[in-house]
Amino acid sequence: MIKIILVRPRNPDNIGAAARAMANFGLSELALVNAFDSDWNETVNCWRREASVSAIDSMEIIDSASLYPGIAEAAADCAMLLGTSSLHRIKPERDVVPLCETPALIAGAEGKVGILFGSEKTGLTKDELSFCRAIINIPTREKQPSMNLGQAVAIVAYELTARGVKTTLTGRTAPKAAQPAEIERMTMEICEKLRREAGPHWGGEAQVRAVRRGLVDARLTKDAMNALKLLLKDKKELPEGGA
């Protein structure tokens, strides 16, 4: 199952175009993160009405879309997160996967897969991409590397559904990995402990990104995550017999 997550979208028409593209290829779950800078309640009332102009025959996706304050909250039910980027503004700090290879990558996911799309103006930032297992890149001409948000959603949706061939992985079943929301909680706990014991330098955005990327890349199982939680606890908090 695929969940489309739009991060900081600026134009209701683009949200509607993305919803229409999702409907074209059988996707139904849409989430928006920090959709507008204006008052939240006013946004909820206005963007559905404005988006309906371009979301032809797909208003059910608009009506059921969820609004979130952050990526961790939007991806709380996802087993894997992938970001999208043209890569013309940033040097990637994650693995880059060509769009044509993405179906094979998500075939091994133990649950829902979230696909992040960034703001029309800036795309996804390094901080936002640090939540992701890898970056999906759509091959485009160098003179015009970026795409309209609705078009990008349409191409990715097509590749992952209508054209993508699901690959069945053989061998033993992989253990269930920690979910993005759990990784984010652990990132905050690790950085807080480092701030206390190693100094305020560890409160910087770059350090938080580095810890988050490390946890995502480690692909920790739930058992490994529980062990890490015990390591982070102060000795006085450990149960009797603990280290």
Molecular structure report:
The chain has 243 residues and is of the alpha/beta class. It has two domains: 2-162, SPOUT methyltransferase, trefoil knot domain (Alpha/beta knot, 3-Layer(aba) Sandwich), CATH 3.40.1280.10; 180-237, no CATH class. 42% of the residues lie in helices and 13% in strands. It has helices at residues 12-24, 40-51, 59-64, 71-74, 102-106, 126-129, 149-162, 180-198, 205-218, 222-232, and strands spanning 2-7, 29-33, 66-68, 80-84, 95-98, 113-117, 134-137. A seven-stranded parallel sheet has the order 3-2-1-6-4-7-5. Helix 1 links the parallel strand 1 and strand 2. Helix 1 (12-24) packs across helix 2 (40-51) and helix 8 packs across helix 9. It is globular. The termini are far apart.
